[in-house]
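Reference record
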Amino acid sequence: MNLRDVLEQRISSAIQAAGGEDAPAMVAPSAKPQFGDYQANGCMAAAKRMETNPRQFAETVLDKLDISDIAQKVEIAGPGFINIFLRDEWLCGRLGDIAADEKLGVAAKAQPQTVVVDYSSPNLAKEMHVGHLRSTIIGDALARVLEFLGNKVIRQNHVGDWGTQFGMLLTHLDEVGQSGESLADLEDFYRDSKKRFDEDEDFADTARQAVVKLQAGDEHCRENWRRFLDISLAHCQEVYDLLGVQLTAADVRGESAYNDDLPRVVADLDTATLLAESQGARGVFLDEFKNKDDERAFIIVEKSGGGYLYATTDLAAIRYRTGELGATRILYVTDSRQGQHFAQVFLIAQKAGFASPEISLEHVPFGMMLGDDGKPFKTRTGGTVKLMDLLAQARAEAEELVRRKTPGLDDDHYAAVAKAVGIGALKYADLAQNRTSDYVFAWDKMLSLEGNTAPYMQYAYARIRSIFRKAAEAGEPAADSQEAGIVITAPAERNLAVKLLQFAETIDAVAATTMPNILCGYLFELAGAFMSFYEACPVLKSHGQTRSSRLALCDLTARVIQKALELLGIETLEQM
């Protein structure tokens, strides 16, 4: 249990002992040192329900509260806030425990979950584009964090490998007799087949028939279909490897995997008395979703012609994930525009018993990446930005920056730094945003060595490691955080120590809220606290226990920064 949870538990108990009912303590780190290290405001809500004076009630709570083992002072502020000042000796002892822990004080969950994270999910037979970036990196960060907490995480890449687009491709392939050896050829091939599908009704009819044959298991169609998939998936893996994303071929489970279960999904909805018919199609009416005319939403699961829709496949996927994979929590990291679709599918799954009430089905929506014109990010000619091209540009932009800042290094070093900084900057700029918001893509901002950016964090880490290199060059012993005791002798040391202590609660918050930007915000505050400490407290020029303690604080800070960036999928560099 992290410190904030401990404080909330004890203060909530004190509120209840003082007569407050159902009163969470709502503890959070204080915004300013004069307000203590943590602040609780649960007394005001409890007092309001009790129709009593909140400050007087807070005084009663303090009489019931005992956190003397943790806090050196607890005081009431304003209309009923409780300010908590941690004991220096407790703080130093706790930092020692964290330093000795490989997981830096982040405790594994007492009851770990089996979490399925559905992310990336590109449509195959086309090259991945910038629209796949947010799902891919947000999903990867969440999977890493949840796994770090001891949960069993199952990554699912629900690729679009089925449907009309493959009917177009198969028909075009049969007629022109080639598919191309590279993805660039396949991209052109897709474009040509789509043009014919839109303009030639006979071709479109044949393509639709090809889909039916593919779904029925026709071996010729299946063989050519697999050729398209192999080329597309090889490209996807190349992108994932370059991005440093933990997705592999073993995580791919596309729409086609659920094809045989779709008739059973419809039959089971019928057995559950949920299935209805409307204009020849079969689906589910939902009283919970109505339009402006007060008409119930009708979610189609089988078209009048016998075909199935995304909702049917998603229901089959939920049943597979809860039944076969044993998921207790399922995250869907997709565009926010799919919010209503998932809300409806989740509701049907629960009504049908595909997911029990104890299983958490969660849509993790995100906004759009915008250009400087405020419109969806495009190439200068207005086309879709290919993800591989964007990653190449990220490395090029970073290499130009590094060569300008640090001339005279060898090309291999520039290439390694450019990859870590460029890809890291691209990912961090996205992850640092509230994921539900749109954001404007800007190279100069994301590559800045100032502000809440990956290069700033990477530089902070490299700067700390340079302290230890300087100590080694001078032939001086350099204590690390796992060996040396930490003492607090200055305010800047204390501020850094408190911030280091908050790593565990930050990780817990990211897992609970599915908001990676919480971790980015914490990193920015930690790096700022370290810079203030570094300016106010000489490290290598200090002596004795003070020197060992400050080196230990440096080492622990570097380890936390490195681990936090790793959980975001971002590399660190020993030297920039």
Q: What stands out?
A: Residues 413 and 576 are 9 Å apart (CA to CA). Residues 454-567 form a domain with the Isoleucyl-tRNA Synthetase; Domain 1 fold (CATH 1.10.730.10).
